[in-house]
Design goal:
327 residues, three-stranded mixed sheet, 3 strands
Length: 327
């Protein structure tokens, strides 16, 4: 057993560090997955930075919908950066050791960013609902002040609601095992190593997930039900198609995000022993959405593509100007 034990019996934790073993069942060749994961991470950071720069520089994109997209980009980069550097360090440098405080901090950050992503999806659904169902009142309802208040509310909500998960995990008694069959510190993966009962952590995580993401999903479904009802009342098929096309990117991302959340939750609760599929899904769920979100919006949003072209043309123009010899 590779557990590192503290000498004092009075210490709250006997185990002083955890060992992240990586992907279950493929430890010998898991390093080959580092290249696609690194490319996904770089594309996520690069694409989201490009979206932020484009939104900031293009006056045509100074709209609430794109403000929420910019906030989503920041959250995506935070989520990807919470896990990917450590995963790549495990695969490349065999840096498997993680201290208990670092592990609990990672649990907190993952829950916080995933909850914020869910909250931003809800804000974007509300934005589309007002834009389609109450277009005349849209400028007076969805203002910069509302966007700021909604963002602050999401940050506070998820910062507070995510606290019980790592706090309960830190209160468990880790007395012997310290090898986590995972690439990251997941709540259930860590607490199942405890010598005492880990089920309160599982129940707490499930209740908080239903309270936060369950309520978000319910309100998103309600918003799109009202949008669909409003669109079906339109006399023009072209107007209905145009209205729904503004929601298509959002719907694709929501479907992917919540489907994977449900699958991960079910598989983790059903499994008593860590297996490759749920662990790999957990990793991919934290890196694919940050890579996927910018691509979906870039491919399906004409205004954003035009903004990209303006940014690239502007940068090329500046480069050409600098390269010209002075007379």
């Amino acid at each position: 057993m590779s557990a590192s034990l503290k000498g004092s019996n009075s210490s709250k934790f006997q185990v002083s560090e955890f060992i992240l073993m990586g992907l279950p069942g493929i430890h010998s060749w898991q390093h080959w997955l580092s290249l696609p994961l690194a490319l996904l991470y770089l594309s996520a950071i690069g694409a989201n930075i490009l979206i932020l720069v484009t939104i900031c520089q293009d006056p045509a994109l100074q709209q609430p919908m794109y403000s929420f997209l910019g906030i989503l980009s920041v959250v995506d980069m935070g989520l990807a950066t919470t896990i990917m550097p450590k995963i790549l360090a495990i695969f490349w440098f065999d840096a498997k050791v993680i201290s208990l405080p670092e592990c609990f901090a990672q649990i907190y950050a993952i829950h916080c960013f995933v909850g914020m992503e869910s909250g931003i999806f809800l804000c974007m659904a509300f934005d589309r609902y007002i834009a389609i169902c109450h277009p005349l009142r849209y400028p007076s309802i969805v203002t910069k002040a509302l966007i700021l208040r909604a963002t602050v509310l999401m940050v506070l909500r998820n910062s507070l609601f995510s606290l019980p998960v790592p706090v309960l995990a830190a209160q468990r008694n880790y007395c012997s095992r310290n090898e986590i069959e995972h690439c990251l510190c997941s709540n259930l993966g860590v607490t199942r190593l405890a010598c005492d009962d880990w089920r309160p952590n599982s129940i707490c995580q499930l209740v908080l997930a239903w309270l936060v993401m369950g309520s978000d999903l319910g309100l998103i479904i309600l918003s799109y039900t009202l949008i669909l009802r409003s669109v079906l009342k339109l006399n023009s098929a072209e107007a209905a198609s145009k209205a729904l096309s503004t929601c298509s990117s959002h719907l694709i991302l929501i479907l992917f995000f919540y489907t994977v959340v449900v699958v991960i939750s079910v598989t983790h609760l059903a499994e008593t022993k860590a297996s490759l599929v749920p662990v790999l899904l957990n990793v991919l769920h934290n890196i694919i959405p940050p890579s996927l979100n910018p691509m979906v919006y870039a491919l399906r949003t004409k205004e954003l593509r035009a903004g990209f072209q303006k940014v690239f043309c502007l940068s090329l123009e500046k480069k050409t100007r600098h390269q010209r010899p002075s007379p």
